């Protein structure tokens, strides 16, 4: 279970991947979906080039002792350019911009939030309703089933039509 948490977080950040080889997923995808940003007259364009994380300021133990969140600074390399010929004097700016601190997973697969170690527990949530399914028995007969998922959390009901 620990490996799943660590691998998922690593895939989200893609820190081991060079920027030019990052997949369109996780944090990289969030940036790509929200950039470029333009002003209302489409004169200035803010483009996302890359992101990186600086090392944490405090160790895990220091965060627990001080009641802090174990986090890392998130920075993005952004480019501001101008599409308007009237702004001849404008020079394109490429700069690393601090966006904020994001919680960072410990080697144990936990997060330290305000000094308390927390675990993310994935939970399956089914939408209420009736869902019908069909499968095939090894003898070739079709098996039909209906799954009723109630609005309240009292349990599920599964009905199957038996083979005759």
Notable traits:
3 helices, 9 strands, 164 residues, 2 domains
What share of residues are in beta strands? 35-45%
Strand order of the largest sheet: 1-2-3-4
Task: Give the tally of structural domains.
Answer: 2
Show unreliable segments.
none
What number is the mean pLDDT? 86
Q: Supply the number of helical segments.
A: 3
Main β-sheet description: 4 strands, antiparallel
Count all strands and give the number.
Answer: 9
- Look at the helices and sheets and give the structural class: alpha+beta
Distance between the termini: 42 Å
The rounded Rg comes to 25 Å
| C-alpha geometry | extended
Order of helices and strands: HHEEHEEEEEEE
Query: Helix proportion of residues, in percent?
Result: 10-25%
Task: Describe the 3D structure.
The chain is of the alpha+beta class and 164 residues long. The chain folds into two domains: 2-57 and 70-104, no CATH class; 129-160, no CATH class. Helix content is 17%, strand content 37%. It has three helices and nine strands; from the N terminus they run ααββαβββββββ. The strands form three sheets. The protein has a four-stranded antiparallel beta sheet with strand order 1-2-3-4. A three-stranded antiparallel beta sheet has the order 7-8-9, with no helix packed on it. Strand 1 (37-38) and strand 2 form a beta hairpin. The radius of gyration is 25 Å and the shape is extended. 4% of the residues are buried.
């Amino acid at each position: 279970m620990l490996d799943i948490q660590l691998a998922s977080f690593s895939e989200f950040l893609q820190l081991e991947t060079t920027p030019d080889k990052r997949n369109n997923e996780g944090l990289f995808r969030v940036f790509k979906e929200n950039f470029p940003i333009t002003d209302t007259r489409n004169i200035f364009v803010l483009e996302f080039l890359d992101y990186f994380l600086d090392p944490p300021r405090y160790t895990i133990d220091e965060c627990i002792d001080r009641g802090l969140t174990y986090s890392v600074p998130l920075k993005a390399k952004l480019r501001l350019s101008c599409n308007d010929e009237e702004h001849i004097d404008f020079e394109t700016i490429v700069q690393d911009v601090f966006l904020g601190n994001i919680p960072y997973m410990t080697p144990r697969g936990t997060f330290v939030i305000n000094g308390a170690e927390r675990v993310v527990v994935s939970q399956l949530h089914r939408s209420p309703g009736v869902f019908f399914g069909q499968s095939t028995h090894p003898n070739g007969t079709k098996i039909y089933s209906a799954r009723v998922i109630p609005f309240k959390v009292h349990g599920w009901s599964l009905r199957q039509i038996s083979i005759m």
